[in-house]
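Homework help board

Subject: predicted structure for assignment chain

Our instructor gave us this sequence and asked us to write out the predicted structure in token form, then describe one feature. I got the tokens but I'm not sure how to describe them. Can anyone check?
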Amino acid sequence: MAIHHDITVITITRRDRIISREPYLTEKIAKLVTRGTLQSYHKGEIILRTDETPPGVFCVKEGYVKVYSITDAGEENMHIIYGPNTIFPIVWAITGKLRQVFYESMDDVLVYRISREDFLTFTNTDPKDTKAVLAHAIDMANDNADRIDGLEYTHGYSRIVYQLIALAERHGEPYGAGVIIKAPVKHHDIASSTNCSRETVSREMGTLEKLKLIEYQDHLIVITDVIKLQHELLRV
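My token output:
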């Protein structure tokens, strides 16, 4: 993300960059995880809790999983969304350290599960696979850093716009002249990841609709013009 509120020059993220992320998994790792146990979760089911050791390493086959913590006030604070071909919990898989977060299915989800021991043994035997796993972990860290960067914006409107662009970069697919965010993100999710109230998110999303910068298709968010949406970060 190359837009910053404290400068007058911005680097526009091209639409083709948003939808052209390289796959994380090498062919060998993909074959490994698909030999694991296939498990299904319905929308809203908790896959992993903060107080339990994961039963293995997961890889998303279908659907979306959100990762969030609970604040002292009992409110949800969403960190990141995992889509197809994402391995989690990647920090535990590599280091054995647990994070105080929940993993919850956002829709009907299919995941493969393998043991951590098999995952480490297999990925440590080939430098290409090791590099792929490290790249995966670094990309997840970058996405979390990007979320924190977005929180630096003073106005809720800017934080919401920034989050929409970030979601499009990770989960976007071409849709006409725009980009559709395939993750089933709700106003509640945007609110919990931008430190905004649900009322603020509803109001500002309504503003973006009136500007014809976003629309909805089957309850999914469509960004109709990525470049114009990015310029909204400089308008406030």
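Reply (TA_rk): Your tokens look well-formed. For the description, you could write something like this. The first strand starts at residue 37 and ends at 41. That's the kind of observation they're looking for.
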